[in-house]
Amino acid sequence: MKRLWNSLNIAFSMYSRLPAAQCDWSEENTKYVMCFFPWIGIVIGALSLGWNALAAYLNVNEPLWTVGLMLIPLAVSGGIHLDGLLDTADALSSWRTREKRLEILKDSHAGAFAVIVCAAYFFLLYGVLDMVRGELISVYAFVFVLSRSLSGFSVVTFPKASANGTVAGFAKNAQTRIIQITEVSYVILCAVLVLFLHPVYGAALLLGALLTFLWYYRMAEKNFGGINGDLAGCFLSVCELAAPFALVLTDRILQIVG
Fold first, then answer.
1. What are 219-241's pLDDT values in tens digits?
2. Residues 6+ apart with CB under 8 A from 249
3. Percentages helix, strand, coil for the chain, rounded to the nearest 5?
4. Are 88 and 231 in contact (CB under 8 A)?
5. Per-residue pLDDT tens over the stretch 99-126
6. pLDDT digits over 140-186, tens only?
7. Number of neighbours of residue 139 by Cβ within 10 angstroms
8. Which residues fall within 8 angstroms of residue 124, CB to CB, at 6 or more apart?
């Protein structure tokens, strides 16, 4: 029980800015970290729903409502996953060898392509979230658990780009089978809940997330020989844009044909 408690605190201290108890990052304590990674998504989803309710109560204008929805995941995560997206953008845009791309991922400096991708990401995210209204918001809130469940599954399943690094370390110490079963269970639970809330919108969100997951595997394998922490963060950031985009696109199609 103590190991699970320590794994929970390590997950929250590493992947969020939320308060967590201090504990030793030993092999025993890191075995189940990925099992608790999606719990951060539960917090983000709950805060997003809470912000939506508060904004409605206070009659907050639409631009501020959208910006608040954008900033909640960033505030909770501390930007750790966005950093992975920007490092990946620099590496892929270099058109260099696989070894050089991996070196660029480790570089702490942001290149021109990272800045461009960052600006484009937030413009697109603003445009998408501005359309996540009404009954869409309850389905959208599940994307944060879904993205982290898929990311956690990839950490213990996908080939690694390097034998070193955080992802390789977690995968080495992890209880692989238990984590795989746990992450798949989270995905199934999310699928059941979103399909119950709205079958069409739920299916759109799930499809967007799963297509992004397939892209992530192919991109990482082709360009880097496997995944690392930056690539996992890139996937999570892209998933939290692509899945709600599929959601709002489906909503618009339904409005047109309806």
1. 999 988 888 888 999 999 999 99
2. 204
3. 80, 0, 20
4. yes
5. 777 776 776 777 778 889 899 999 999 9
6. 999 999 999 999 999 889 888 776 666 666 566 667 888 899 999 99
7. 25
8. 241, 245
Of 211, 225, 213, 214, the closest CA to residue 160 belongs to 225
Cα–Cα dist 133/91, whole Å: 35
Residue 99 burial by CB count (10 A; 0-12/13-18/19+): exposed, middle or buried?
Answer: exposed
Q: With pLDDT > 90 as the criterion, what percentage of the chain qualifies?
A: 54
Of 65, 59, 5, give the one whose Cα is nearest residue 36: 5
Rounded CA separation 243/255 (Å):
19
Q: How many CB atoms lie within 10 A of CB 178?
A: 14
Token pair belonging to 157 = 């399943």
Instruction: Read off the tokens for 241.
Output: 């844009």
Q: What is the rounded CA–CA span in Å between residue 226 and residue 183?
A: 20
pTM exceeding 0.70: yes
**Spatial separation of the C-alpha atoms in residues 218 and 228, rounded to whole Å:** 14
Among 169, 145, 157, smallest CA distance to 217 is for: 157
The fraction of the chain above a pLDDT of 70, given in percent, is 93
